[in-house]
Amino acid sequence: MIARVAGAFTRAMLVGLLIATPYLMMPGNVADAPQMVVLAALLAGLLTFIEYSSHFPSIVEFRDAPPFNRLRFLMLFTTIFLLSAVSRGTSEPSVLTGAMTSLGTIIGNAIDFPFSPVRLVVLMLPENASAALVASVRTAAGISYLVSLTAMVCFVFLIRVLGWPTRNRVFNVWVNLPLFDPTTGGDVLDRLQRDARINIALGFLLPFLIPAVVKAASFLVDPITLANPHTLIWTMTAWAFLPASMIMRGLALHRVADLIEEKRRRTYAEAEEDGLQPA
């Protein structure tokens, strides 16, 4: 009980720090920002504490299958921290901000080819956007895309090499998939495989669809202003994090489906050895 509450409190503090990182690192913040940042950090931390302090799951998937959620949090925090450091370097340059800016510029220019996600993000900007804004958006897109790709490669390594999620632990489907109802919708294995394919497909398409949707919606509503550093940080973070998170979820569901299928094969083989007909 004490260990669970302490772990939930630590996670809540980290989530609150994640929300506050751009404000803490960016100079020259607006006067009303502290109240909004503190409110958002407290709300996110409270929801995290309630979720992880409870013995029974509610909405967070793979809660008892580390390091899935830890890897996603690290990906999100790293993206926000690096983008905040790059934005800080425009007014208060340092060795760290210069290195991050150079890295992001190299990656952004390398990925900025026709029909690439980075090129679509750049084309999402209005036609009168300045060259400095285009360069900052390209740099932010390069950094966020690199972090998301690194996280996905690490997760594939965890599955293929380290045997996630069954290495040295028992995987409980009910605890790790609290929103999945195995009693409805047909065979569990088919539903997991279908959901996995949908998540992976959407994850690959979202980096291309989001800029297209934003560009199309700009004719109806005022487009978002990426000239604001905070808007740029959170927009580029969401643009890279959401697709990567969906792909990781699809890979995780596919892995769970493989475990269930393997369990079924073993059960049927044992039944045949005992002279029984599997149902």
From TrEMBL:
Domain of life assignment: Bacteria
- Keyword annotations of the record: Membrane, Transmembrane, Transmembrane helix
Quick check: keyword Transmembrane in the entry? yes
Q: Where are the transmembrane segments?
A: 12-30, 36-52, 73-90, 143-162, 200-221, 233-256
Protein's recorded name: Uncharacterized protein
Q: Which organism does this sequence originate in?
A: Aliishimia ponticola
